[in-house]
């Protein structure tokens, strides 16, 4: 919920009027056949009642590939669970007390 409130406060009216599904898994739920195979025929499924929009629905999760459009690249759920915004980002003024020339060139990350 905190992530959704953050999105609303950051983007406000720019957010589309859609339903979101939150997942804590980084496993894709949907692979677009049009992205995997651009010659794939369009779906010929029956149409639904007016106002009903069939899935896939926007899923808030971790996604780093065009092949998985259901995973929106939004702040990882760990960002809020580990309180990075309070414990890490809140200390940025302290970081600024150290001149760039006195800092060590260190990088941390999870890369493939």
Can you walk me through this structure?
This protein has helices at residues 2-11, 33-36, 77-81, 84-87, 92-95, and strands at residues 21-22, 59-61, 71-73. With 112 residues, it is of the alpha/beta class. The protein has one domain (2-82). A three-stranded parallel sheet has the order 1-2-3, with no helix packed on it.
Assembly type of the chains comes to single chain
* Mean pLDDT over the residues: 66
Percent of sequence in beta strands: 5-15%
Kindly give the count of domains: 1
Straight-line N-to-C gap: 30 Å
Helix content: 10-25%
Instruction: Report the structural category.
Output: alpha/beta
Query: If helices are DSSP runs of H or I spanning 4 or more residues, what is the number of helices?
Result: 5
Can you tell me the residue ranges where pLDDT is under 50 for at least 5 consecutive residues?
none
Shape estimate: elongated
Spatial sequence of strands, sheet with the most strands: 1-2-3
Rg over alpha carbons:
20 Å
Largest sheet: 3 strands, parallel
Order of helices and strands: HEHEEHHH
Number of strands: 3
Characteristic terms for this protein:
112 residues; alpha/beta; 5 helices; elongated
């Amino acid at each position: 919920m905190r992530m959704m409130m953050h999105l609303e406060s950051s983007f406000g009216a720019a957010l589309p009027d859609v339903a979101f599904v939150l997942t804590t898994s980084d496993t894709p739920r949907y692979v677009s056949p049009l992205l995997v195979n651009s010659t794939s025929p369009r779906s010929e499924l029956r149409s639904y009642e007016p106002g009903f929009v069939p899935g896939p629905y926007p899923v808030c999760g971790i996604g780093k590939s065009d092949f998985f459009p259901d995973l929106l690249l939004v702040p990882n759920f760990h960002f809020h669970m580990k309180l990075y915004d309070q414990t890490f980002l809140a200390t940025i003024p302290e970081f600024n007390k150290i001149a760039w020339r006195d800092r060590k060139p260190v990088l941390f990350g999870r890369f493939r």
